[in-house]
Amino acid sequence: MPIVSLIAIYVVVWWIVLFAVLPIGAHNQVDAGQVVQGSEPGAPHVMRFVPKLIGTTVLAAVVTGLLLWGMSNSTLQEYWR
Prior knowledge:
By secondary structure, the chain is an all-alpha fold. It has helices spanning about 5-20, 30, 50-70, 75-80.
């Protein structure tokens, strides 16, 4: 498989995983009891974006690897036919 295709698959998987990971462990300002004046009360109290980006990158690599393994596995290819 060409490297451009691998990168494209990884980017799509990365974005899907990012939107799945973002709400994990998020606490809004109302739950924390510290609503900043003029902001949305449902906004996150503390974002913690860098750990989520690192986790997304690792999880997307694992999911992409499993996806590529599934596409190249001869047993699964026979099952899908």
